Amino acid sequence: MDVSDEISENWRWCDELTIVQAALLIVGIDPTSKAGASCERTVYSEQPKGYAPAKIAISDALQSGKIRGKVYQNDSYGNSVGAIPGSVDVDASVVSVGSVKEWLVSRGFRKGFLFPALEPTDYLDPGNDRYAPKLAAAVQAWKAVTDPNGKHPKQALMKWLRENAATFGLTDDEGRPNETGIEEVAKVANWKPGGGAPKTPSE
C-alpha cells in the first residue's frame, strides 16, 4: 500500500505548512502520525527515509526565495535534534503549499500526496497522446471544489487552480500561476456562469 494512502485528506485544506509538515508530506508521512510527530526529536538515523534531505532542501529554498513563506530562527532553546541558535526553525517557519509544489515541479518532482492523483481515465492520463492539461485541470477543479465556502464557484475554482497550477502546466516561465490560463479553465469548470452573489447557508 502506498504510504500516502495513510495520510489524512484534511491536510489538503492547508494553504500553508511548516517546513516539518511539508517535508513529511513529501516523503509520505502524516505529520500527526507517531513517526511524524516525533521526527524532530529523533536521531537522524531513525527519522523517516528521505525526510532530512527534504527538510534541508525546503529550508534552503525558503531562505533563497525559491519558495514563498516566512522564516523564523531557532533560539538557544530549540528542541530539534542538532538545532543551532540562529538556524531556521523548521517547526515555526511556514511555506506556501502552492509555492512548494511549483518548486518541486521545477526540480522534476510531481508525485506523492501534494499532487492530486489523476483517475485512470484516458482524457486525464498525462501519458495519453491526446492529453489536454487544461481539460484535466477543469475536470479536477470541478471535482475538488464541492463547497465554495461562501465564495462564488469561479473564485473558489481559481483558488484551487492556483494551488495546483504546477500540476497542470498553468504556470509561467518563472513558475508563477498563469492567471489568464487559470481564469480560462475556471470559466469551463464554473457551474454558475451567470454570476451573482453566492447564497449563504441560511438562504
Structure description:
This protein has 203 residues and is mainly alpha-helical. The chain has helices at residues 19-26, 34-38, 51-64, 97-106, 133-144, 153-163, 179-189; strands spanning 16-18, 69-70, 94-96. It folds into two domains: 3-106, no CATH class; 122-189, no CATH class. The chain is 35% helix and 4% strand. It has a three-stranded antiparallel beta sheet. Helix 5 packs across helix 6 (153-163), helix 5 packs across helix 7 and helix 6 crosses helix 7 (179-189). The longest helix is centred in the N-terminal third of the chain and has 14 residues, at 51-64.
Properties at a glance:
203 residues, mainly alpha, 3-stranded antiparallel β-sheet, 7 helices, elongated, disordered N terminus
SSE order and pairing:
Blueprint: E1 16-18, H1 19-26, H2 34-38, H3 51-64, E2 69-70, E3 94-96, H4 97-106, H5 133-144, H6 153-163, H7 179-189
Short description:
With 203 residues, this protein is mainly α. The protein is 35% helix and 4% strand.
The value of Rg in angstroms is 19 Å
Strand/helix succession:
EHHHEEHHHH
Unreliable residue stretches: 1-5
Walk across the major sheet and give the strand order.
1-3-2
- The backbone outline, from C-alpha atoms, is elongated
The description of the largest β-sheet is: 3 strands, antiparallel
The tally of structural domains comes to 2
Strand content: under 5%
Distance between the termini: 44 Å
Q: How many distinct helices? A: 7
Mean pLDDT: 84
Helical percentage:
25-40%
DSSP, total strands: 3
Question: Helices and strands: which structural class?
Answer: mainly alpha
